[in-house]
Amino acid sequence: MVRPGPSTPRGRFLVLDGIDGCGKSTQAERLVQGLLARGSGPVRHLREPGSTALGEGLRELLLAREQPIFARAETLLFAAARAQMLEELVEPALARGEHVVCERFHPSTFAYQAVAGGLPEDEVLALLRGWTGAPAPDLVLWLDLPLEQALQRRRPGGDRIERRDLEYQRAVARGYARYAERDPSVLRVDAQGSAESVAAAVLREVARVL
N or C of the chain: less Cβ packing under 10 Å? Predict the structure, then answer.
């Protein structure tokens, strides 16, 4: 792995996560702009799955409507995309002193594939921590929005996972709460307010780790 030089402060790895429609992309963009406005140095904006060539290819496969994929295979594909992103992009950026803002991380895999997908929680967490555990985020923010509001915000149609039934979506929402129970370092942000008020809350939490 790339190591920072003696005079290069290491960047911070910041994750925004939550159910589809909670505002991750909007808040990630606002956080990047907020960090730049504060003069916090270079900022890299990434998304999961994606950001690398391999990750984008896996994203297309994972989200294609016509492609049936079982929960175990989904988990492995998401983990593969994450492992590639961490080694190819995140670790080098942090070592250069850049901050990284990433949409989705372990909470998503736990909520969608373990809780909603019916896989053993401990097995999924062991996989994620063993194979995609480094570098670990400095901060994980859970944008918590009631499912009914999130459904209203979503674009029509949606991808293969977004189109799953309401029972599955409710299980995903429970999965995020369950992940926060298991990992107290995850910080909940109420995402029901305006985009501006949520962005201010996010930036306040991020400022604590800079």
Answer: N
